[in-house]
Amino acid sequence: MAMQLDSCFGSFFLCIFCFAWFLTFPAEAAVRKYQFDIRVKNVSRLCHAKPIVTVNGRFPGPTIYAREGDRVLVKLTNYAKYNISIHWHGLKQFRNGWADGPAYITQCPIKTGHSYTYDFNVTGQRGTLWWHAHILWLRATVYGAIAIMPKEGTMFPFPKPHRETEIILGEWWNSDIETLVNRANKMGLPPPTSDAHTINGKPGSLFPCSLKHTFSMEVEAGKTYLLRIINAALNDELFFTIAGHNMTVVEIDAVYTKPFTTRVILIAPGQTTNVLIKADQPPSRYFMAARPFMDAPVPVDNKTVTAILHYKDIPKTVIPSMPKLPAPNNTNVALSYNKRLKSLNTPQFPAKVPLKVDRHLYYTIGLGANPCSSCQNGTQLTASLNNITFVMPKVGLLQAHYFNIKGVFKTDFPDQPPVPFNYTGAPLTANLGTSLGTRLSKVAFNSTVELVLQDTNLLTVESHPFHLHGFNFFVVGSGIGNFNPSKDPAKFNLVDPPERNTVGVPTGGWTAIRFRADNPGVWFMHCHLELHTMWGLKMAFLVENGKSPEESIIPPPMDLPPC
User: Fold this and answer.
1) Measured CA distances, 506 to 229, 233, 365, 385, 480 (Å)
2) pLDDT tens figures, 403-447
3) For residue 226, what are the β-bridge partners?
4) Which residue among 63, 136, 248, 472 has the highest number of C-beta atoms inside a 10 angstrom radius?
5) How far apart are CA 335 and CA 351, in angstroms?
6) Distance (Å, rounded) from C-alpha 307 to C-alpha 288?
7) Cα 20 to Cα 38: distance, rounded to the nearest angstrom
8) Could you tell me the keywords of this UniProt record (predicted)?
9) Tens of pLDDT, residues 38-54
10) Can you list the domains of the chain with their CATH numbers?
């Protein structure tokens, strides 16, 4: 018996009604069907109207509701002028890379006038994930939440909230973003920063023409609410807070955490965070607010986006209280927040950290500049891992692997940097060229991998949120400066490290992750700053099949888009 929830969008209360209906829906409803129509719609923000690409004419798009163990079918039909693909960010897609979505990695994009059905199972996951376009910069407007409930009869490992809502943080450009990006690429420079951040598609009342474009959430005094917070911004890590209220963090990237209380959270592009808030303050109106964190000399859109926490029966004429956000460059708040994140690690929800490592990888993250005769300064800004700028293929890598198509990629991505140097010393502004290639790292099925991601001072140090498709991983260590392989592993947390799908590498520092390569296929790994991804800060792992059919990639669907 299928369930269609596309109508569950609009006002907050309509969403609450739909969610309550979902909770009471019979357990046998194991197939959730959705129709995603990619359409262009005129939308106005900040006194500017422009056509944007949407799903079903909604901005943000519809929420996918499912329960752990469900099968989800999303039929996507493309009515826009752009080719499109959708990534289901954080869903593991076991053996089923065909449904993962990154264009030219696991599929070729869906062309105008064509359809493709994403068919996937939600296995062993519950919590908040999200979906977004995974081609060009279309995810600026093509994104939405995924809310996964636990299996029937399984409780949350925290007090049941009275209600819940999604808080999706995004970015808005007054001009057409694809036009801005194309113009910047021709000059070899980055495009302009966004004109505003948004909460659920709305910039908030601090911006011009935005009184009606302010998200508001009504609460009742004494009740507890669950916020599913998603950073769908393209290029900014964000601090988020609510005036006068504490937040209790209970989940990150759809993995339960040891609960802790905080006034502010830090959330990088691609990450999700579930928090509980109790409406325990004097009934009034309170601003929720978000603003970028950036502790490097890199330009960002540093304006503050707001929404309103509105206590029931309080007049809308009451001016909301404004919270105090950390300074945009407050590294101490950022580092101390991330140190508090730990897996729940209970018998029911264990942290299965690999203790033995089969493969040690060390990847340096660098910015660079390659010659470009037509560019403004004679160079094109670029980015690399181990000094390799990834070149996107013309054929999906998963298809090339599965059908043994020659000449599309090589499997010689290096495990170590080509030339060791003082990675986080003085800024390096010479010899910034990178090598270009479509180079993958081949990994044996079910082997354990430890990957250290090392920031460098090539042009500048900067924080980088890295997302690995197809897997969760454990963040076993992090530090400032250069990773020391003889000393730093002794300080790793191998008991209850946070389990994520997207992790921030600190500015001028390193992060160590571990995962078990138990998912055969071709899996993208990239910086989730769209600018850096475009510049080539990405690669892919080719995880080999195991010995049995149950440990091998499933055959592609019949309607897989042609290349």
Assistant:
1) 21, 18, 11, 16, 7
2) 999 999 999 999 999 999 999 999 999 889 999 999 999 999 999
3) 164, 276
4) 63
5) 22
6) 5
7) 28
8) Apoplast, Copper, Glycoprotein, Lignin degradation, Metal-binding, Oxidoreductase, Repeat, Secreted, Signal
9) 999 999 999 999 999 99
10) 29-156 (2.60.40.420), 158-343 (2.60.40.420), 359-551 (2.60.40.420)
